[in-house]
Structures are given as structure tokens and as C-alpha cells.
Amino acid sequence: MTAALVRRRALTHTRWNANHNRSIGQLPLRRSQSTFNHFVASTKLQPVSPPPQLRPDAKPFRLAVKDNITTEGFPTQCASGILGQHASPFEATIVRQLRARGASIVGKTNMDEFGMGSHSTHSVHGPVRNPLAATDEDVSAGGSSGGSAVAVAVGDADVALGTDTGGSVRLPAAYTGIVGYKPSYGMLSRFGVVPYANSLDTVGLLARDVEPIRSLVFDTGLYEEHDPNDPTSLRLATRQRCSKACSPNLPDLSQLTIGIPVEYNIAELDPSIREAWVATASVLESQGARIVPVSLPSTKEALCAYYILAPAEASSNLAKYDGVRYGIRGSEGDAVGETLYSETRGAGFGAEVKRRILLGTYSLSSEAMDNYFIQAQRIRRLIQRDFDRVFKLDNPLYEPRQFDLSEMSSDTALEDKQGPVQVDFLLSPTAPTYPPKLSEIQKRSSVDVYMNDVLTVPASLAGLPAVSVPVKVDRSHQFPVGIQLIAQYWDDRRLLALADKVMKLMMD
Amino acid sequence: MSRRSLGELSSYLLEGRLSQRGCINGRRLSSRTVPIWPFLRPPYALRHLHAQPEAAAAAAATNTTTTTATLTAPQAGHVPLRKQLKEQAKQAKKQGKKKAKGDSQTADGWELTVGIEIHAQLNTSRKLFSPAATSFNDDPNSHVALFDVAMPGSQPLFQKETLIPAIRAALALNCEIQPVSRFDRKHYFWWDQPSGYQITQFYEPFAKKGHITLLARDGIAAEDGESVTVGIKQVQLEQDTAKTLAQAGSVHWLDFNRVGVPLIEIITEPEIHHPRTAAVFVRKIQLLLNTVDSCVSGMETGGLRADVNVSVRRTDDPSKKLGTRTEIKNLSTIKAVEDAIIAERDRQIQQLEAGGVIAGETRGWTVGSKETRRLRGKEGEVDYRYMPDPDLAPLVIGSDLVQHLQTSLAVLPDTELDKLVDYYGLTAKDALSLITLDNGARVQYFYRVLALLESKLQAEPDISELPEVKSYATLAGNWILHELGRLTTYKAGPLASGDLSFTQLGECAQVPEEDLSQLLYHLHRKHITGKVAKELLMAVSLGELEGGILEAIESNDLWFKEIPQQEYEALAEAAAEGEDKMLEEFADEDKYPRGKLMYLVGKMMRLGPTERIDPATAEKTMKVWIERYHGRGEAAQLFDLK
Questions:
Q1: Which residue of B has its CA nearest to A310?
Q2: Dihedrals phi, psi of B364, to nearest 5 degrees
Q3: CB nearest to A88's CB, from B50, B153, B185
């Protein structure tokens, strides 16, 4: 942690800890007005059900929860005007699981409305600010789980829950210099997570180090727990089959092959981030790992596919916010010659959410469906196939696939007559640039802002586990660089072990 | 009275303030507790919504001001209008007489084509995607899961039990069950649709390519001949919506008990060409779904409703392309199906003959009206933006399940009907009534009575072998349909009995099967007369028999004491006396005057002692006597008189 950060924290923060056990009532407003605006001010609510039974192995820790995950005792607003002070009548499975493991919830964290954004600026509570920035600068904390990342970065929480749809946990982790982990799709329950794009949404974990995350997910058996309330939660038998296919132990680095996806070396990549990427690869190589370039040719289309599929699902998921059963409702009736609910939805949603609803509504319309939604789904398949082709491990969800050499680009280097080299992990930066100033973001077009997700969406589209770890190469630079590691489906345990190794090698 | 156009009425009444939107709808909307969902289904219902305050106001206005209107009308000197209305009513009556319904099945020079979509509520205990219970009349909002009200963060959980009635229905419709099918979201905003979308099976339904055959005895249009086969394009699973309960003013209450209740939608090929056949199709589907226990609540309770697609083309059209079709939504009675199709066909033909074109649009039908009304055109069409539901895995149906359900499928009505006709000797009409009455319980009652009657006949020491099945089965069928039916004709007075109620298993509390079979046994064995049997039945149904049938006969001495054969012959002789002229009519063997014969038999009965003559024996005796009278002795031998 930088000296500036520690100093500022001392000035502006009393420990949140001192307050979080307060009885029912208004929580101190200070939270939303705090320097970084990472917590959401809210009325503490009476819990409706008893807390879960503590497990014998429970260890107390402070947990911050992104505001799109339902929680007992707190409203769940998704940083949206349309959910007002929505008090969810139930608690998310992941929150209950963590509370049984000793979590006490320190607060709900600020975010981009419904998870739609890359800088945690599209919030009814105002933007989250990056604690690593100089005092006089407002810099992006990344999004959409920006509040969760900041809560961990400034020490208000030991672990934070975020959601990652196209990079929403990894990106803020990279910007705030912490660890952000997106598990394999279907591993952690989404029951109680307000959906943005169901087929991409995953619950992610943020912490300052890899260890608390690894320990929670694997030592306490979180990865083995099927949730019958979530139809996309992997069933027990499938989990066991997947676990059998992946070795639990990370071998010595000399046994590992790590791929550098050449398509990720984009022109927009900040030179010093490219430097940090190269430096990380070099350090791993010096430790005995084999570093090879790999090609993921469909990467170029990933961003487009993502920004068609995610808004399409979002437009559908957000159709339920009509003010009839919960949330806010306009004073005007719906019957006076107007489109049903247009007033409620017009007033309740923010600009970015409206933009994505419109995008999604268009790409699902009968005239655009074939050219957009269907094509994007095809690309999604291709991206998944790209990954399956480069990983040594087979994807445990499919029958092993044979890849025809003729399908690969002609400049793919062949390892031997078996084909090109296959890898254990992929190594890339998490974001193409350092965190931008909030004032700069305002000047950018939406499409430019979407560009920021280019390195994180492919793993999301393929449902693969990925983690961002902070790497400090240029000591003079204000911000660390987020380095992303991607693994084959369900290879999460080895992924986190390698992430831990990389972080230790690079931060010392 | 025929209906005036509202425009005309409104300029007359209320100084033109009467709504043009139609007061019938308005009343419906504003009446308490009437579920209006069939009328408020989106997207066309948008119009209702917008029109609703006006319509309700209009309804209120008409209710409160009719009296004033009638009072002031004569004063205002508007007698011509009343006269006009009378004239028109007369005219309409005349026209109505001229064209009976039977004639309306065809329109000269035109061919009608109809396709039908039927929505039916499945008989399941759980909703389609939540474990909440399905219910019919429970307290509003008492069976609602988080997902049912689209609570943020809740997810659908497919209830696999709902597949059983769905597959049964598809099998009854001779469909191919798809090993893999998927769920899609169909988007539109409506207050009874909490998610903003309905989960259905648009792209890949679970059943395809079925068919059912409608027979002449089902009541199809005569033009369709002996039978017609209608193809079923697909059957899909989908969610029902919440129930809207209209309150006074512009207030609507929502009951989410019904939201998410599983439905099947049955879509036919456009292969029906006569209105009556379409109606018969809907009735047969209802019967089939009921028989296989897929759907137990019918149209009357809103458990089943139909949309019809109607188009016409000239019969001499060589291109053979179907005309532009219109869709009539939410027909909630069998009669409405037929009436709406006739009205829509005639409207389209009129339009085309006048040189117009048919617009592809959605239309509505109000029970009792003569015209369909436009609800929305193509431009008002909602783009449903069908999208595969990303939370729901594909539905995989194993062939073992399909096999099992196929073998355990209930006997289909046609098979049962054949047996009732061919084996038990019932007429097709009676057999059909038996199957359809009381949701299938009446025929179960028939089997129960028949079984008891059979065992009583078997126990009979006097007869060596059981009489022919048909002889007593038709007797039982006749009594169970017609005599039981007569019991309920008295609505008031000492003879009034409540409606007969049958359990699903065919038990009847008012007329227990034991009593009826005992009665029929004695009747069949000629131990009692039909008249006595009828009186006994009435007594049973009124609960006046304390000691059972046998005791009632014994204690009142109701046994049939038949006169000996000689007395019959004497009676025949006596009856024929002085009827020489009539007897001459029997001279020509080929022209047997049955009416005259019955007259003579009646005379025999009057001459003889009451309650001691069997009409059948009297008839036979009379016949033999006439044959003898005409010297046709050999023929007389044919009559076996013991």
C-alpha cells in the first residue's frame, strides 16, 4: 500500500469495524460521502430469517457485498433508482455460505447500475473513486464491482463479493492493486445475484492476497457445494467429474507451459503495461516455466459478441422492473395513452442501463436477431473452441474434441506432428491501460469505454476461470498493473495457486 | 333486438357523451370479481387498458341513465327511433329465420381455412418453474414463490412432474415427443406478467407432428363427410399469467396464484374448412385432454381457451394460395368458436367482394355478438423478441418415460365410444353423451351399475346362461342417461331434487349404483313394470326409500303379476272387435301399418287389468292374431310365444 494511501486513510477514515455491529437504524451517512464513495448508505433492516449456523471451521472475517447481491439486513438496490430501498425478502446463497464461514457483513458496496459499466461511475450514488490516486485527482476504481474493490483496498473489508460478467471483478482489482477472481461459470451459486446477463454472470471474490480467496473456495469446500436454487449451479456429480479431470496440485514451474495469447497484444495496450506483461513472463521463464506464444484467433470478435449478448440478456432481465411489485413507481398512471410503464422505467433507470436495454432490444428484434444475436452466439462458440484448442486439459464439460489443423491459421507454429503446443495457463494483462481519470471517461464515447473490457470478455464468454493479480514493475508509476491468468474450465485451484506464485514473485 | 351502432345511440342518448368503445366491454370490466383475463390478454389488450376508464365510465353512465333516457325519450319526440329499432328487430328476425345455422357452414364460391391454437391448463400440483402449489379458488396470492413475482435474484426451477400431463396430452394428440426441447422468453409488458416475459417453447417445442381424427358422430359439418383429420403442428409448454380482478373505477387487483401455472399450447395446421368442424375440434381436444387427465378444467372455468386463424380464398382460384389471415383471440366457449369463425369468414368475403383487401390483424369476439372487432393491426404488432432462456437447461425427455406414459395412457374417447356402440349396443349419440357428461364420471357410473346388474343376473337361478349383453346394457344406458336426466327436470316443488353429482370414480350419492342395478335387474327380468321402476327411481333420488328397493317392492306389493297367455289372446280378440276396417289395412304384408298396430295394442292394455300386462307380449300377441286373421298362419309360427 502506498504511503499516500495510508496517510489519507488515516485522515479520512475511522475503522468501519467500529460501527458495523450497530443496532437497527440509519447507518452513518459518512459511508456514502466518504472519500471514495465505495459503500452505499442505507437503512439497516431487520433480518427476516435467523443467521446461518456457523461451521466448526468458521474464522471471523469482514465481508463487503456488492449491492446487486441480496443480503439480510440491508437493502439491495443495484445502484439503481428503480429499486429504491428494495428490501429483498431472501438472502443470496453465496452470502449465507460465507456467513456460515465466519463472515460479518460490513456493508453493501457501490457499483455500476446493475453491473453495467467498467468504471463504477454509472451509479445513482455517484462514482466510486480510486484510493490509489493522488488526493487531488478523481480516478476510476474500475467497474462494475468498484466499491467492493475499494472496500478491500482501503482495508474496510478482508474479502469482498463482486460479480463478473465481462471483467467486472478483474478490472477493478487491477485498477486498485488487489486480487480479483472470477470462478468457472456454475461453480458459485448465483441465487440472489440480481442478473445482468445470466449466461455470463459469475460471483467473484476480491481480496488483497490470493490466499484468503483460495482458502475460502477450496479449504472450506465452497467449490463442492451445489445450490438447488440455482439452475445453472453445477450438479454434484458434474462437480466431482470435473474435479477428477483437473489435478488439485500445481506442479513446479518447470513443469508448466504458459501461453501468451498474441491477439491480446493490441495496439491500444499502454507500453508500460506491455512491459509489465513481458517482465512477468520473463520472471516465470527464469523460474523454469515454458513460455510460448499461442493464437486465439476469434479474440478480435469477442468484444463485439459480448456487447451484443450481454445487453440482449440485460434487456430481457430488466423487463421485470415495472414498479408493480417492488421498487419505485411514478405518480402517473399507465393508462393514459402512454406505453405501459414508460414513466417508471424512464425515471428509474440510468443512462447507461437505458442504452444497453435499447441495444439489447434491438439485437433481439425479429429484423436484427439473425444478424446480431445469432451471429454473436456463433462467435461465442468459436471463442470457447479457441480456448479448448490451446489448453492441455480437455474441457470437462464436453466430449474431447479433435481439432483439424486446416481450421487453424497458417502461421500457427507447430510443436510437432501432433500440432501446435498446448498450455496450462494463459497470461495477459487485465486491462489495456492504467485507470483513467473520471473526467477523461466523461469525454469518451460509450464504445471507447467498452474497449476497456477487450482483454477480460473472452474468458467470460467461454465461462473459464480467470484471476487478476497486481504486479509492480515500474516502481515510479502510481498504479500497479493487473496481470490476468486464465485456465481451463474447473482448473480454478491450480489457477489460484499460480496466481499466488506470480504475485509473490512480482511484488517482492 | 338487434344492436344499434353505438354512434347512432350516443348521438341520441346523453347528448352524444356515450362512449364509442362499447358498453358491453365496459360492464364486464367494471363488474366485481369477474376474472377478465381472457379479455385482457396482451398485446391487443392495450386498447382495453386505454379505453378502460372511459368504458367503465360509460358503463356507469348507461346504468344510471337508462331510466332517464326512457323517460325523456317520448317527450323529446324521438318516436321514429323506437319505431326504427322495432323495424330493424323485425328485419333481423326475418333474416335469422331465413338462414339457419346449418346453412352457414359453407359460402358459395369461397373456401374457408381455419387454424386453431388452444391453451390448456395442465393438471399438476406445482407451477412450471417454481415449487409453489397450483390452486383454483384459494385465497388470492397465497401460492406465490419468489420467482413467480420475478423477485430480483430469484431463478426458475423446472418442476419435472409437469411433464407427465404434458406428455400424456401430446401422446393423446398422436404427437412425436422431441428428445430435446428448449425454453424461450417471449417479451411483452403487461401487469399480469411479472417478469416482462413469458417462458414458452418457441424455437424447439417438446412435441410436434401430431393429428386427431374427427368423426361424423363427433358432430362435424356434414360437408366434411364421415371423418376429417386435423394435423397438430406442435405442442409447447408455457407459463400462465396472473389473474386480474377488476374493481370499481380504474382499479385492478392482481392474484399471482395463477402466474407460472403450466399451460400447453396446441397449434394445428391450417386444415379445417368448416366452422362447425372447428368447434367440434375444440370440444374433442377438451374431451381428449380430460380423458388422459392432462387438463381437468374446461372452457367454462377458464382452464382452456382457443385462438383461431381465419382466411378465405375463392374456390376457382388456381394459385391455391391461402388468403391473408386474421386471428381471433381468446374464444372462451365452443359456440363462440363456431360463431366467430362464421362472422369473420362472412366479413372477409364481404370485404373481398367489395373489392377490398384483408389486413393481417388481430380481432376479438364478444359472446353474443354478430361481428368480430378489430383489436390491433400489423403496425400495432408487438415484437416478442424471442430469446432462449439462459437460466434454463434444455429439456431432455427420455424414451423410457414416453414409453411408460404411452402404455399407461387412458383409453381414448374414440376407442371407448366404439366399445359402447359395438359391444354394449348403445347408439352413437347416447354413447357420446355418456362419455362427455359430468366430465367422464357418468360413463364410470354406467360401468359400475352394469357390473352389479351383471352379477345379479348371473346369480339368478332360473336362467341357465346370461342374456345377451346388449339387452341389459342398452337398458342400463337408457336409464342412466334419460331416466336419470328426467329426475332433475323438477326445479321446484315436492319432486324437486338437486342436480345429480358424480365423483370422478363414478359414484352417485343421490342414486346409489346398488339401488339402480337392483331396480334394473327386476325390470329386465320383468319382475316389475317400467312405470313402477320409474316411481321407485324417483323415490330413491328423493331419499324416500328406507329399506331399499326390494323391501319397497315387497311391502307395497309392486311385483308385476302378468296375466296368462290365454288372457292376452282373449284381450287381442276383444280389442280387434269392431275394428274390421282397420284390420283390412294389414292385408298387404309389405306395408305393415305400425301405428295402427300400436293403436290396437293400446286398446288391449286399456281393456285388461291395470299393471298386469307386458306391452311387448301384448304386441306380439296382437301381431299373431292379425296374421291369423289374414290367414298367414305360417308367418304366425315365426313368433315364438313360449
A1: B390
A2: -120, 165
A3: B153
* Alpha-carbon dihedral sign for residues B617, B620, B623, B624: negative
B residues 32-61 lying closer than 8 A (beta carbon) to A? 46, 49-50, 52-53
Partners of residue B421 on adjacent β-strands: none
Check CB contact of B85 with chain A, cutoff 8 Å.
no
What confidence score (pLDDT) does residue B378 get? 59
Using DSSP's 3-state secondary structure scheme, residue B64 falls into helix
Flag whether residue A76 sits within 8 Å of chain B, measured between CB atoms.
yes
Other CB atoms within 10 Å distance of the CB of residue A247 = 13
Q: Which residues on A lie below 8 Å from B392 (Cβ)?
A: 231
CB-based contact B189 A325, cutoff 8 Å: no
Dihedral sign, Cα of residue B376, residue B382, residue B383, residue B388: negative
Q: Provide the annotated active-site residues of A.
A: 66, 144, 168
What DSSP string runs through B407-443? Answer: HTPPPPHHHHHHHHHHTT---HHHHHHHHHGGGGHHH
CATH classification of A3-248 is 3.90.1300.10, yes or no? Answer: yes
Task: Residue A290: name the closest of A265, A253, A250, A264 by CA.
Answer: A253
Pull the grid cell for residue B106.
359453407
Scanning the structure block, which residue is given the C-alpha cell 330493424? B88
- Which pLDDT belongs to residue A362? 93
Rg (CA), chain B: 31
The full DSSP string for B291-324 is: HTTS--S-GGGTSEEEEEEEEEEETT-TT-PPPP
Average pLDDT over residues B45-74: 36
Q: Angle CA(B540)–CA(B542)–CA(B547) in degrees, nearest 5?
A: 45
| Chain A positions in Cβ-Cβ contact with residue B158 (cut-off 8 Å) | 231
A362 inside 8 A of chain B by CB: no
Closest among B427, B531, B519 to B470, alpha carbons compared:
B427
Exposure string over B123-153, b if 16+ CB within 10 A, otherwise e: bbebbbbbebbbeeeeebeebbbbbbbbbbb
Q: Which parts of chain A sit beneath pLDDT 70?
A: 1-34, 42, 330-340, 403-419, 508
Are the C-beta atoms of residues B291 and B276 closer than 8 Å to each other? no
Nearest CA distance, A426 vs chain B (angstrom): 27
List % helix, strand, coil for chain B (3-state, nearest 5).
45, 15, 40
Task: Collect all residues with Cβ–Cβ distance below 8 Å to B521 and sequence separation of at least 6.
Answer: B453, B456, B457, B527
- Interatomic CA distance for residues B184 and A182, integer angstroms: 28
Q: How far is CA B32 from CA A116, B47, B248, B259, B503, in A?
A: 44, 21, 7, 21, 31
Crossing angle of helices B79-98 and B45-76, rounded to 10°: 120
**Residue B493, pLDDT score:** 62
Residue A431 in contact with residue A174, Cβ under 8 Å?
yes
pLDDT band at B98; cut points 50, 70, 90: very low
Mean pLDDT over B512-540 rounds to: 82
pLDDT at B367 over 70: yes
Kindly give the interhelix angle for B513-524 and B530-541, rounded to the nearest 10 degrees: 170
Helix, strand, coil shares of chain A as percentages rounded to 5?
40, 15, 50
Helix (H, G, I), strand (E, B) or coil at B204: coil
CA distance B345 to B275: 9
Across A271-280, B302-311, B580-589, least confident range: B580-589
Spans of all domains in chain B: 6-98, 103-388, 413-556, 565-638
Interface contact A90-B390, CB threshold 8 A: no
Helix (H) or strand (E) holding B487: helix B484-487
| Segment A366-397, tens digit of pLDDT | 889 999 999 999 999 999 999 999 999 999 98
**Domain ranges within chain A, ordered by starting residue:** 3-248
Distance from CA of A258 to the nearest CA of B (A): 32
